[in-house]
Amino acid sequence: MQGSIADSSQPITEATIAPTAIAHAHEAHPDFRVWGLLTFLISESLMFGGLFVTYLFLRGEAAVWPPEGTEVELLLPTINTIILVSSSFVIHLGDTAIKKNDLAGMRRWYWVTALMGATFLGGQAYEYYTLGYGLTTNIFSNCFYVMTGFHGLHVFIGLLLILGVLWRSRRSGHYGSHHHVGIEMAEIYWHFVDIIWIVLFSLIYILTLF
Amino acid sequence: MTPAQLPVNTPLADPGASPPPQGWKWYDYFTFNVDHKVIGIQYLVTSFFFYLIGGAMAVAMRTELATPDSDFIDPTLYNAFMTNHGTIMIFLWIVPSAIGGFGNFLVPLMIGARDMAFPKLNAIAFWLNPPAGALLMASFFFGGAQSGWTSYPPLSEITANVAQSMWILAIVMVGTSSILGALNFVITILFMRIPSMRLDQSPLFCWAMLATSLLALLSTPVLAIGLLLLLFDINFGTSFFKPDAGGNVVLYQHLFWFYSHPAVYLMILPIFGIMSEVFPVYSRKPIFGYKAIAYSSMAICLVGLFVWVHHMFTSGTPPWMRLFFTISTLIVGIPTGVKIFGWVATMWGGKIRYTTSMLFAIGFLTMFVFGGMTGVTMGTAPVDIHVHDTYYVVGHFHYVLFGGSVFGLYAGIYHWFPKMTGRLLNEPLGWVHFALTFIGSNLTFLPMHQLGLQGMPRRVAMYDPQFTSVNQLCTIGAFILAASVIPFTINVVWSWSRGAVAGDNPWRALTLEWTTSSPPLIENWEVLPVLTHGPYDYGLNNSSPENLEPVAGSTSPS
Ligand SMILES: [Cu+2]
């Protein structure tokens, strides 16, 4: 271990280093971005965990939940849920395509996913617009808007990631069957947003029926 | 989606970028730089700057408390100082210096990596800190947040709304920084060690950073949500924490303490890591109980997530909760005790060198054990109900945060300053620094326990005249403590340019950071080192030069 050490009596010897060789060695480590994203999403899911706990805590305190006049609408959110959940399968088709080096196929499926995501956001905006109560109406509506809004923000970020992939993929050669970490990351993030929505939908929409 | 198919040779850096320079210039430290060593030093220097600001606030408060009446500063300003002193010391000094500073500088060097896993993300995480600090400073133009670092509603919702909102944004920024830094550490420590180093051969500092990072990843987002809801309550008319509209104040306390109890481990686990490096080097003995110390970090990480309600025993907590969280709190003391015994046993029979670093490490031991014991007393519900919100609490957490974390940071600075700068800190000046710090901190914080037991409430600018003389003792201690920073600052500034040249390995230590030059090359090593012995094999048979006396610090009594 000691072999590579310069004699300690020598002054600091930056001048003797060949920077390009070292820089090259630096780039040789494997790509950990997917692991990094997964770690980040564990953290992120605890953010939603905090919101879910808040919701259940406040619900447990309330006499009537949701209070009269702030019932949730069901049809549109259900359609929205179906769209978002199926978009998770669509985006996976894109991932499968790029692994077969089918760039056009990947772009096609990612465009469809982006469209479905945008539809989801549009549907949510329409829902907000037609519900008849707002953020400040009561404690339930507080929860409703903050939770769905916070999730909507994540859908929006996911949408941006997908559009970013599409933007980058317009150059051929940027992605390929062995070169698609960015595509994969967008997909993982999209699945995450989807899973969170399923929990959220159960808590806010389905469980308020009982 | 299958990780196995990931490309393994993706260049992280832009291939068209110019090659890195041959050494960093001083102005590189003021730029967006992705070198983990630059980022580490950026964290340390920035956070030390905030330490001075937070310290000045403390001096102002102690001056006010020299007399029972409010006669030095306006009580509103006192509250703002009280809030921001705590906030700055926690979020802009101890956490960023221990995790961001030492973690970034040391982890890649200790595991034989050329940098962190995500260098750019690392730089982004650092650059979230200065604006957060600026935001806190700016909040003073709006009166400054009034409600303490805990920011409990309803107080936080009815006082200084603008300043409180700025405070929230600042905390969310440093919280984001903390999450990004933590994920970087987890990936780096798990995947980027040199091939010859198993996880259970890595230095204990790396274990401590792994536990710290996991804790930060799991707890910080919950605080972020609590603060987000508080922000909505203050600014957007929601009522999450407003009982008159169906909200609940205790809910905030749960969200807050789910982060903020683990936060004490964010502030002490990296320090434990520093201790595990410092004690063996200056005792010239292998660390006692490597595995016990390593796994106890993980145990603290796990159990530490389930003790938070001990801060809420007086919040109408149901008896079963008091019972459960008293027991879990007592349990979390055990892994900490394991470490303490490990360090004492490491020193036992060792050939101890009383360098400044070692003095601070021993100072840490005494102060932290005391603070730990007062912590255990308060962790039990019956005692807590008596001393809750009194100066006993203030005394306790300053023993663990100042006597523990800050002493540990000082020990780390004296130990690794030669590696960071290539020069040694001046030892006699270091001893003066240690003496002033040790006397000052005990004089400031020990009498607070008595004040608390006699019933003096915390967070007040005025108090009952019967507490005057003891308070004056604390104030004198605080002045000594403030003075202690002067020799340290002089020492650092002077030694950075003119200190004795350190050489690669002035303490004859065995961890990998000492195998490169001081300061290390830009990519750490020309040829990556290969492990030939464990990190703590001092005095064992493989007699290599490391087993000789340290070349530096040999002026100490022996
Ligand atoms: Cu605690």
Task: Describe the structure concisely.
Chain A is mostly helical and 210 residues long. In chain A, 70% of the residues lie in helices and 0% in strands. Chain A starts with 18 loop residues before the first helix and ends with a helix.
Can you characterise this structure?
- The complex is a heterodimer of chains A (210) and B (558).
- By secondary structure, chain A is mainly alpha-helical.
- Chain A has one domain (31-209): Four Helix Bundle (Hemerythrin (Met), subunit A) (Up-down Bundle).
- Helix content of chain A is 70%, strand content 0%.
- Chain A has 6 helices and no strands.
- Chain A has helices at 19-26, 33-61, 75-99, 103-130, 139-168, 181-206.
- Chain A is elongated.
- Chain B is mainly alpha-helical.
- Chain B is 63% helix and 0% strand.
- In chain B, helix 1 packs parallel to helix 3 (119-127).
- Chain B is globular, with a radius of gyration of 23 Å.
- Chain B starts with 35 loop residues before the first helix and ends in a 60-residue tail after the last helix.
- In chain B, 56% of the residues are buried.
- Chains A and B meet through helix 1, helix 2, helix 3, helix 5 and helix 6 of A and helix 6, helix 7 and helix 8 of B.
- Copper (II) ion is lined by residues 261, 264, 307, 310-311 of chain B.
